[in-house]
Recover the amino acids of this structure.
């Protein structure tokens, strides 16, 4: 596990006595963005962002070029089923954590992602058209 604060690298270049270029790597410690966080929240948020981004090109998207940005959840939203679907999946992935494939991180990423989607579909962060313009 990475130590806190996070190590970064700084590179310097110089010529040695044989007129060859030498590149040296020096670790540089950086401060966290938020000094109040102490439970790796910044790393967790980055992992969540990476996971959510990966879902936008997954097998849940349409294969036809016209529907490549359409996900299954969009179809459920068109029928007002998305919020209940998200809530059910939070229960599904939360309850199987530790049972199926052990205490795997992917199940928790799914719980977090479905919670984010539930915040959207329950109106906490909803766009004006709820993201359904592609169905009109």
């Amino acid at each position: 596990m990475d130590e806190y604060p996070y190590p970064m690298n700084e590179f310097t270049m110089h010529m040695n006595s044989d007129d060859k270029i030498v590149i040296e790597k020096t670790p540089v410690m950086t401060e966290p963005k938020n000094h109040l966080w102490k439970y790796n929240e910044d790393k967790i948020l980055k992992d969540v962002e990476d996971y959510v981004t990966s879902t936008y090109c997954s097998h849940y998207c349409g294969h036809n070029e016209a529907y490549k940005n359409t996900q299954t959840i969009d179809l459920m939203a068109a029928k007002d089923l998305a919020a209940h679907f998200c809530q059910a999946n939070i229960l599904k992935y939360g309850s199987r954590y530790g049972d199926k494939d052990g205490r795997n991180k992917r199940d928790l990423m799914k719980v977090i992602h479905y919670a984010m989607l539930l915040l959207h579909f329950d109106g906490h962060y909803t766009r004006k058209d709820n993201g359904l313009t592609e169905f009109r």
Q: What stands out?
A: Residues 99 and 114 are 19 Å apart (CA to CA). Residues 105-121 form the longest helix (17 residues).
